[in-house]
Amino acid sequence: MNKLTSRGRAAAGLLVGAIAGAVSTGTSAQAAAPEWKAEHGIVIECSGDAHGVQVWTSVYENQRYGNIVQVVIGGPDAGHGNSRNSDDKFLVDGVVKASVKVDGKRAAVKGTAERYGARSKVYEEFDDAGILIKTRGFHRQLETDLVATYAGKTVPLTCDPAFYYDLEVKKIPIT
Q: I want to staple 59 with a disulfide (CB 3.0 to 4.6 A). Which of 3, 44, 49, 67 is the partner?
């Protein structure tokens, strides 16, 4: 069973978003029946503190909704951050490369991430802004060796959660 921090739960929420699965068509008053839709990608959340630089980052890929990297430099009360969406993958052949500008300086996340261990079954249901979201499928842990670089300093990162996911997602409007 995956343990998810509050940030991990937020990342899992990003996995499925808050997009309604039902769409009205033509003159029909009924919405289309929600369907299971495939989603796969990665969630890697890391933090580190070295050389006077505190870093939190999330590297997220979803083949259906896109990829995003987020980086926060500094603590939760005094931190500055930014995010960047990308059509390009951040994890390719076991190598992670992602970057975003924070306060005019490049913040990069780089290193390796490899799947390891057995797949874990996943089934969750939760309410997100009036939409019942059901997910079923698998997670597989990622073994990571990542660093962040910012303002000429390198910060080793500890990542948790870090996993690959292969899910089916159904979004049902709650009326």
A: 44
Q: How far apart are CA 51 and CA 156, in angstroms?
A: 10
* pLDDT for the residue 32: 76
1-17+36-116+141-166, what's its fold? Porin (2.40.160)
User: Tell me: the pLDDT tens digits for 68-109?
Assistant: 999 999 976 778 999 999 999 999 999 999 999 999 999 999
pLDDT in tens, 11-52: 444 443 432 333 333 444 456 789 999 999 999 999 999 999
Alpha-carbon distances, residue 67 vs 31, 32, 150, 151, 174 (angstroms):
29, 27, 21, 25, 28
Q: With the CA atoms of 42, 168, 122 and 15 taken in that order, what torsion angle do they form, in degrees rounded to the nearest 10?
A: 40
Tokens found for residue 87: 């059509």
Sign (positive or negative) of CA dihedral 153, 57, 105, 103:
negative
Cis amide prior to 161 (ω within 30 degrees): yes
Q: Let me know how long the chain is.
A: 175
- The DSSP result for 141-161, as a single string, is EEEEEEEEEETTEEEEEEEEE
pTM: 0.81
